[in-house]
């Protein structure tokens, strides 16, 4: 039997490993797509609040309602990713994700739909004309051009009279592209669409989503901040009881490029302020 002193030492070492927080570790690529910080494909990299999944070289974003969408590109500079809408269910003018009422993001997570998307909604009821006057549902709208110019949409939705289009943005479309029987049953989305182009020249379908700028990594021990140079494990000034790797005085948290504490302007009245989240905050 091991001496008590050795057992105590082993327990202390084991306990320290268990509570150590991985302050900053980038996730590896998923196939050909980079996974920049803060996106996280596992518990040991990125920020778990920004969870995505890497399955056999394909990156996926999970929605609130149990559906998942393939991520086709990621841009860390604009903090955006593009997902591929699932299109139409086979031989019907209904979205393939109709069962989960379309794309619905969890409002508690740091993702939202940008204003760069143009959405075609098809197989709509007359109720839409009465309740959503902001939609363009005219007989000459670009939605009809899309149906006529896209073979799949034409075959499945061409005989249905009401289709509309809109550009995302505002509170109604911040977290969802919704389909349901009493409104519209199908949709398609395009990022940065130039509607002057013929449908045959439109980009592949996509929906642009952005993520909120992350806070500095959480920490418990000073060593947790070793990977974030020029930072210290200090009490979080926003959330009591938490500690984060806060940048030292004279440095600012940069979560977009290189993910580091970058040298920046020093706070005025430094004795009274500290830098949190890249901004000067009162102590």
Automatic annotation (TrEMBL):
Record's bilayer topology term: Single-pass membrane protein
Matches recorded under InterPro entries: WAK_GUB
Domain Wall-associated receptor kinase galacturonan-binding: 27-83
Protein origin, superkingdom: Eukaryota
GO cellular component: membrane
Key words, A-Z: Membrane, Signal, Transmembrane, Transmembrane helix
Pfam families: GUB_WAK_bind (PF13947)
Principal location class: membrane
GO molecular function: polysaccharide binding
Secretion signal span: 1-23
Subcellular location per the Swiss-Prot or TrEMBL entry: Membrane
Keyword Transmembrane helix: yes
Protein name per Swiss-Prot or TrEMBL: Wall-associated receptor kinase galacturonan-binding domain-containing protein
Annotated organism of origin: Gossypium klotzschianum
